Amino acid sequence: MARARRDLGPVRSVTPESLGKPGQRTFRVVVRGERGEATVWLEKEHMAALVMSIETVLAEAPGEGSVAEGPGPGVRAEASAPQGERPVEFKAAALAIVYDSPRRTFGVLAYDADDASSSTATLAWWLTREQAKRLAEDAAEIVSSGRPICPLCHRPKDPSGHMCTETNGHQAAKDHF
Ligand SMILES: [Zn+2]
Asked: Are residues 137 and 169 in the same domain?
């Protein structure tokens, strides 16, 4: 399953962050996986796109079902970190979300901006459904910089009014503002 040149495996923690002042913020995701750590720098648009992608994949993937959440049966716990992997850090040109149905995990693939020629992802890490959901929520909050998130379209609600894409911006948008 060579989806990425580096695979961090199942994730212990994944933390979306923003740094800097409003208007000049930079964004990153800090990932701690079973096979190493990485810091992936992103544009705000990528962070927003990540939220939408996760929402989409979560909606399309089979539901919770009968299998317990948490490190699923397909996720092997590999305690030994192979060959002294160093933390990686790069600026991503794009992210992609995949669902691995046999293992019931959600993969995030990150593509290095300096390596646009390659079709192989630079980095992959794997999330449970719960982790994926939480990452989407955390990332949405960071993108909105504290503004409340609309429960329908998952975009930040503006104090001046909210044009909800889920209701085509009609009256219902006011009702749930
Ligand atoms: Zn909305």
From this structure: no
Q: What is the pLDDT of residues 105-157, one digit of tens each?
A: 999 999 998 876 777 899 999 999 999 999 999 999 888 876 777 888 877 77
Residue 124: CB atoms within 10 Å: 24
Q: Number of folded domains in the chain?
A: 2
Structural domain for 89, as ranges:
4-146
Ligand 1 centroid to Cα of residue 55, in Å, is 14
Do 160 and 83 have their domain in common? Answer: no
Return d(Cα 156, Cα 15) in angstroms, integer.
20
Q: How far is the CA of 84 from the centre of ligand 1 (A)?
A: 46
Ligand 1 centre distance from Cα of residue 119 (Å): 35
